[in-house]
UniProtKB/TrEMBL annotation:
The protein's name: Amidohydrolase-related domain-containing protein
Molecular functions per Gene Ontology: carboxy-lyase activity; hydrolase activity
Keyword annotations: Decarboxylase, Lyase
Pfam families: Amidohydro_2 (PF04909)
Family per record: Belongs to the metallo-dependent hydrolases superfamily.
Stretches assigned to the Amidohydrolase-related domain: 127-377
Residue ranges of the TM segments: none
Gene Ontology BP terms: secondary metabolic process
One cellular component (GO) term of this entry: cytosol
Organism: Chaetomidium leptoderma
Length: 380
């Protein structure tokens, strides 16, 4: 009797949680990011974006006003709910990470300790349930002095389930093309800890126009987040960061923003810019994308996924993600039983199946095989 091939594992590399220590930090704050409770909501509200400030101000003065932010449900903080979500969505392994805005806002004196607490919490989550399959991306105290950040990287190297770090686009405050960030990038490369790059700050609210409040979160999330990632990576390329740290590996959230569509335009502008014509060039944008960059597959469409595959050089450079617990089903608590099917997850799975062929080797690579290999998810 012929042996059946084992079913490929499904790995979610883009899945967030807020440990209790982090929730406590956000609940104590008076400026965004913050958590606030309202009498009309059974769950506290998480306010992350500048675009949510007008709604927060209105709700604080008018109990009948629409509530700001999003409900901080058990999906954000309960490991049992994460396991339930994984079972419902048929996910075998999750690589957990703190959601934005990480520790960017924490004072320099407190950031190191906060990072140790958050990273320690994630390591405990990975070992809390026997038989469960968790790994995590750590968080760095980027507002702290350089020695504290480097010590945090050394600590992360010793945590058995850490497989990289999650980072925003501001770096130490001046962006990812800041020369002061290079020692940190080199330390991460030496430690074999890839960066999962995730947006948070978006674009200035003014670009969305005076009617932006009528459109919910669509403009900052659908457009602002992807453009933030695109600009950050383009700045890194123009500054020569990838050539300066050739061992650096990055995973870009949301399929690299608009890079799959704009990489050619960036390359053309570099070639035709008189200011850059005399500067010795390293590799092209395309070469960097295909040698040092991976993309998650959180793009929600077959068209977008095909572009991501082409831009990155093949299906072996994409990894599946859900962005849980963001983008839940609209209306009521999600995740219980069959009615808990998340549309956001379905769209990403269908994009992989349609673009690469359901059950194909390439689809299996994106859904889990690549993550297992690149992030060493078979080692503990």
């Amino acid at each position: 009797m012929a042996h059946q091939k084992p079913k490929p594992q499904v790995v979610d590399i883009h899945t967030h949680m807020y440990p209790p220590a982090y929730i406590s930090i956000l609940s104590s704050r008076d400026t965004i990011p913050l958590i606030r409770r309202f009498p009309s909501s059974p769950d506290p509200r998480l306010i992350l974006l500048e675009a949510e400030l007008p709604a927060l101000e209105a709700a604080l003065h008018d109990p009948t006003a629409p509530l700001p932010g999003r409900p901080l449900t058990k999906h954000f903080s309960h490991l049992s709910q994460k396991l339930h979500f994984m079972a419902t969505q048929k996910i075998d392994i999750s690589v957990l990470s703190l959601a934005n805005p990480w520790l960017d806002f924490v004072s320099p004196l407190e950031a190191g300790q906060a990072a140790d607490q958050v990273n320690g919490s994630f390591e405990l989550m990975c070992t809390a349930r026997k038989g469960s399959r968790f790994f995590f991306f750590g968080t760095l105290p980027l507002s702290a002095p350089l020695p504290t950040i480097l010590a945090s990287i050394d600590n992360l190297k010793r945590l058995p389930h850490c497989r990289g770090i999650i980072m925003g686009t501001t770096g130490l405050g001046a962006g990812l093309d800041d020369p002061s960030l290079l020692p940190i990038l080199k330390a991460l490369a030496t430690a074999h800890l890839p960066i999962f790059l995730h947006p948070h700050y978006g674009l200035p609210n003014s670009v969305y126009g005076p009617r932006a409040s009528e459109y919910g979160h669509v403009l900052p999330l659908a457009l602002g987040f992807p453009m933030e990632t695109t600009i950050a990576v383009a700045r890194m390329y123009l500054a020569g960061v990838f050539d300066a740290v050739p061992a650096l590996r990055m995973i870009l959230a949301h399929s690299g923003g608009t890079l799959p569509f704009l990489a050619g335009r960036i390359e053309s502008c570099v070639l035709h810019d008189g200011k850059l014509a005399t500067v010795k060039r390293g590799r092209t944008v395309w070469e960097v994308l295909r040698e040092q960059v991976y993309l998650d597959a959180v793009v929600y469409s077959e068209v977008g996924l095909r572009a991501a595959v082409e831009a990155s050089g093949g299906a072996e450079r994409l990894m599946f993600g859900t962005d849980h617990p963001f983008f839940p089903p609209v209306g009521g608590e999600a995740g219980d039983g069959e009615e808990g099917k998340w549309e956001s997850v379905r769209l990403n799975v269908e994009a992989v199946d349609k673009a690469l062929g359901e059950g194909s080797e390439e689809a299996g690579m994106v859904m889990g095989g690549n993550a297992v290999k690149v992030l060493r998810l078979y080692e503990e």
